[in-house]
Amino acid sequence: MLLCAFIAFALMFAEHRLPRVAELRAHLSTVVTPVQWLASLPSEALSWGALAVSDQRDLIDENRRLRRQLLTLSHRVQRMASLSAENARLRELLNAARHRRVPYITAELLSLDSDPFTHQMVLDRGRTDGVYVGQPVTDASGLIGQVIAVSAYTSRVLMVADASHAVPVRVTRNGLRFIVQGTGSYDTLDVLHVPDTADIREGDLLVTSGLGGRFPEGYPVARVTLVVHDPGAPFARVEAEPVAQPERSRHFLMLFPPRRTPAAGISDVARQAALSVAAGAVEEAP
């Protein structure tokens, strides 16, 4: 045990001091990729088996439920079209620039980190797909996190719930900007340095502000669940609940927003290849 602890501390020290160790780690991640794929096979087999043994009554009930959901979503789409047209007219009146469409590729979950002190996951997209360190990742509900390590065929994502992760956000209701930081819990985020007099309320939706150039603007991050004002303190205690559901989702979107400065270690050719792959995925999507 002492030998393993010594080796672990030596590797952590080498990773922080020697840049070559990160490349070695990426190559080793490529080697263990088949093991990660094999580890994900049992859950896929269980899903297939549950579908195969479901009886006709379950299928009929599910079909009826999906029809009701489709009707509800169709109504929302009709309303959204009207709101989008109205928004476009207002932007033209204000001479505002239209938001650029952000290319993306889809990714599937391979594994979730079992360490209770870290919140990371491994996706089945890597360097060959144009994935890069710092790339934002979302699910169907909102922001999941960002890529922190890339191998040839897989990538490791640090989730917003991790205590070392922070995201610049703004309140959709009034535009106030804050920083949201993970707490180590899937259902709680901290909103940092909120003045006691700030106009922030329970139920406010927090979206990415676009500051810093890492995350594109307007993606949902969290919803405020608790605001505590202490007259004797300069800042209020504000907590929020993430809108994304990493513990339930299996499929994700890896975004390719326009980057203001080239990321270290990514050449112009690789960056253009990444955008080409993302554009092709967008064209293939229904």
Characterize the structure shown.
- With 286 residues, the protein is an alpha+beta fold.
- It folds into 4 domains: 2-52, no CATH class; 60-94; 104-156 and 251-284, Rod shape-determining protein MreC, domain 1 (Thrombin, subunit H), CATH 2.40.10; 166-242, Rod shape-determining protein MreC, domain 2 (Thrombin, subunit H).
- Helices cover 37% and strands 27% of the residues.
- It contains 5 helices and 12 strands.
- The protein has helices spanning 2-17, 19-31, 33-53, 56-94, 268-284, and strands at residues 104-112, 120-123, 136-138, 143-150, 155-159, 166-171, 177-185, 188-195, 205-208, 220-228, 235-242, 251-255.
- The chain has a 6-stranded antiparallel beta barrel with strand order 1-2-5-4-3-12.
- Strand 1 and strand 2 form a beta hairpin.
- Helix 1 (2-17) crosses helix 2.
- The protein is globular, with a radius of gyration of 22 Å.
- The N and C termini lie far apart (53 Å).
- Mean pLDDT is 81; it is low at 261-271 and 277-286.
- InterPro entries: Cell/Rod_1, Cell/Rod_MreC_2, MreC, MreC_beta-barrel_core.
- Keywords: Cell shape.
- Pfam families: MreC (PF04085).
- Residues 112-254 form the Rod shape-determining protein MreC beta-barrel core domain.
- Involved in formation and maintenance of cell shape.
